[in-house]
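Ticket #4471: structure output looks truncated?

Reporter: J.K.
Steps to reproduce: submitted the chain below (604 residues) through the standard prediction queue, then opened the result file.
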Amino acid sequence: MDPYGPDETMDPRIYRALKKADIFSLKMLLQENPSRLHGLTAQKNTALHIAAGLDYNWSVPEIHQIFDSHLYFQFVANKRGETPLHCAARAGKIFMVNFLIGSARKSDGQIHLHEMKNERGDTPLHEAARNGHLRIAYELMKADEALGEEINNQGESAVFLAAERGAEEIVRMLLQFPSSAVEGPKRQTALHAAVCRNYEIARLLLQARPALGQTVDATGSSPLHYAASIGGHKMIELLLHHDFSAAYLSDTDGLSPIHVAASMGYTDIITELIRHCPDVAELTNKKGRNFLHVAIENKRLKVVKYVLSDPALDQLLNEPDHDGNTPLHLATNSRNLEILHLLLSDKRIDTRSRNYKGLTTLDLASSCTDSSTRLRMHKIMKQLASAGSEFSPQRMDLMRKKFCREKTEEINRYRALANNLAIVAVLIATVTFAAAFTMPGGYENDGPNRGMAILAKKAVFKAFLISDAIAMVSSIIVTCLLIYTGSFDHDVRLHSISIALKFMWVALGGMVVAFAMGTYAVVASACKWLSILICFMACSVPFVAWIIKCWPKFDSLKMVKATRNHEKKRKETARSRIVDLQMPNSMIVDFETPSGSKYDSIYS
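Returned output as attached by the reporter:
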């Protein structure tokens, strides 16, 4: 029978005294009227719930003096289904836990603590394990061993929660009870959690439950999959030493631990897996892809280098997947220039291989329709052609039509470029205009030359004014030219952008020279070496910008050609020229194409 009526609420004075752990006031209130301890809070908590969850270390006499006459409190659940024992276990209050366990034994000859579950299905042991309270977990298990068998609504056992927290001693204690469950959510086990948290816990679990090494979760992933995804070399050694056959397990996507390690770029894990099981290198996923395919898909350059450096893995270099795509095909699709170059620089790579659709790597590169990556694909095609890749037999005039860019797309690209140039041009114009009226050295304050620049007669100052004027005028010209970039006439757009870029370089150069000359004019007399250094640094800016613009990210052609004989080089050069003729202006920087070049006749 519920001792509380539906409208009975806790006395506010009792509530405040409990919350403040004011034992003296609490005793005084109860002496006046013991029934004041009755009542529930808004969440249906009893006085014992509040006392059990307080950050106050109750002494044994205090607990007995206040609550001995209200032992039925321990069986009352609040709105979340929690008993006072849940609250005490969560808060880590050992005296309160012992009191509640002892009270349960008095009121009922047998203790059934495993039946005390909140709305999440947690027992008091779950709360103790989740919060890392070893002593409380031990007292609970000593009182009712069946607690270790309980699984909450999320499928979590107490051992799993302790392993997830990294509570080694709690896991060790719970494993001493053979009936303790080790299940986790989504069909995981405590070992899945342990490999992500703590080496010693994983070792304890493997010793106590050896079969856990082969247990997979809902995605088919074993603990070894988890360890491979984290990159824990020591954990991998532990799991493989315990049972190396786990290296052959595949998840629901067909990925084995070596695929997982490759996707994360962990070459040391791959080495360890191959050392224990040399043939795991042959494993493929559901798409028929080995770990090299997976590494290239995930752009893991380190793994590609590792495979190329190991002669024992030669068979992977040209192995096709279920679609016939070799690692070189996937590297082309991934558009990763570094990986592609690394593969092409190796003589063992078959650059002419075709997939089951009859497409070569050059065909794949040429089929790119994404305007944002066309320039990169053009570079890739140059590399592939230089390395010996060819188009599959087809009519080149039809292939050329695939690259024709829509007029609206082309206009949008020009407009985006024009916007960027306009921002820079306006910035230069603003700075140079302001510099013309804030003269280096200042103005004459009196005399016949009042209001004139103090340094007006110096050659350096004159150079400052000239370069500043050149920068301002050039930036204004750029701004005017950019008005025409929205034209529907391709030639007008091309001409406007091309001329604007040239004037932009002039404006940038003029602004840098103006800065250098202005600084020199006001600093040279006091510290000549500093003024010279500043001039040198400023004047080097255009050259550095030009070098960055023109310097290739890596010289693919030279490094690939270095591995070929002279006869092959000559043929590759011819193929490269053919590719250039087949490239439409949509795959090059057409706004920089000089007039009268070979592109004018091809793309008109």
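Triage note (M.O.): checked the attachment and the full token line is present. The mean pLDDT is 80.
Status: closed, working as intended.
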